[in-house]
Amino acid sequence: MPTTGPAALELRKLYQELQARNRHNLEQSSNLAHNKELLNKRNAQVTIMDKRIGDLRERLHKKRAEAFQIGQVHSEYQAMSSSNEGLGSFTEIMAVHQAC
Predict the structure, then answer these.
(1) Which of 54, 52, 92, 60 is nearest to 73 (CA)?
(2) pTM of the model
(3) Is residue 93 part of a domain?
(4) 76: closest CA among 66, 88, 65?
(5) Is residue 1, in this structure, part of any structural domain at all?
(6) For the chain, what is the domain count?
(7) Tens digits of per-residue pLDDT, 45-88?
(8) Under 8 Å CB-to-CB from 93, ≥6 apart: which residues?
(9) φ and ψ at 17, to 5 degrees?
């Protein structure tokens, strides 16, 4: 059986092409695995940032509610002191509001 005939040359050419495609496939698989790892890390970072944003929103909401409540109490205190009802100091009014 001749190893230098046209069929043998074609077979050798196909084998080399197969090897080249396999190398390319391995490179692509490696790149894909690396990109997947980066994506997973970024997704984890986004999850952490989302949680932090949620925590900060909750804190902001509480602070706004507290500021609103203090503003309401302060307004009541000003209204009472201007009408000379004299219910007491600002801290006494705050104590009444916190008891409610």
Answers:
(1) 92
(2) 0.55
(3) yes
(4) 88
(5) no
(6) 1
(7) 999 999 999 999 999 999 999 998 888 877 777 777 666 554 45
(8) 73, 76, 77, 80, 87
(9) -65, -40
Q: Which two tokens stand for residue 22?
A: 């396999």
Only one residue has tokens 């970072």, namely: 45
Report H helices in the chain.
Answer: 6-82, 90-99
Range of the domain at 54: 6-99
Q: Is residue 72 part of a domain?
A: yes
Assigned domain for 68 exists: yes
| Residue carrying structure tokens 């001749």 | 2
Look at residues 69, 64, 77 and name the one whose alpha carbon lies nearest to residue 98: 69
19 vs 12: CA distance, rounded Å:
11
